[in-house]
Amino acid sequence: MAATGDVKRALGGVAGLARACHPGPTIAVTTLVTVVAVSAGRDPWGCVLTGAAVLTGQLSIGWSNDAVDADRDRAVARADKPIASGQVSRRAVWTAAGIAAAACVPLSLASGLLAGTAHLLGIIAGWAYNLGLKSSVFSWIPYAVAFGLLPSFVTLGTGPDHAWAPWWAMTATALLGIGAHLANVVPDLADDLATGIRGWPQRLGNAARLVAPLPLAIATVLLVVAPAGPAGVIGWLTLGVVAALLAVIASWPKAPFLLTIAVAAIDIVLLVVRGDALTG
Ligand SMILES: CC(C)=CCC/C(C)=C/CC/C(C)=C/COP(=O)(O)OP(=O)(O)O
């Protein structure tokens, strides 16, 4: 009987760890970067290494975020936070974050010193966000730095040139990161203000809903117009769709937040489709 209880507790802890890692963004970022690596022409083993490095980095950021925030999440009784709801201990989440961070270092450097350093700088930016920048007006900077470096993690690790990613790809992903930051915070605005989190989106208040699609839309323009070669009919149609989405969001105060997410999804598809232009 006691043994059954122990097994149940252990399984609950594993499920809690899975929920504490921010599974949605972790899976989304890992999949995106791995698919971009394939599209940029990295060899299969390199794509596996890229995916493993991004996965461990995202796990370390996700877990450390929940471990740092545990007291605040308890204060507002956030049912979606497994440490606050008692499903997993803070100590277990810190340990998992440390192991993931330690694994991320060799996995990143396996793509080369410069590529690995570019990725690890992004991971350091993520930890800096968790450890304090998220409560400052500069909360968007870690997102811009970390996402802006991701295309170069891919291209610096991909032969024969091992070059930095083109400026438009770095700028577009930095803007995508800023849009992701705003999009992540908008649904939690009330809880954040109640616990004293005063990052950039919280300072914008309700305007954050309107500002969120702007960096994403500028990223769309860059991804359509900046790579070499004509934008093509599909490119111009994409710009038209994004302009229409922006008009709906600006003119309809109750516009579903999913419309902003749709602009982000369009950027992600463009990034993957233009993957071959990353490595020239
Ligand atoms: C390499 C790379 C792309 C790195 C990502 C960089 C970065 C700044 C990540 C932050 C991710 C994160 C756990 C946000 C949760 O924020 P929160 O605490 O505001 O929200 P929550 O309430 O959902 O936990």
From TrEMBL:
Its main location: membrane. It is a multi-pass membrane protein. The keyword Transmembrane applies. Keywords: Membrane, Transmembrane, Transmembrane helix. It comes from the Bacteria. Pfam families: UbiA. It is found in: Membrane. The chain crosses the membrane at residues 92-110, 140-159, 165-186, 207-227, 233-250, 257-275. This is UbiA family prenyltransferase.
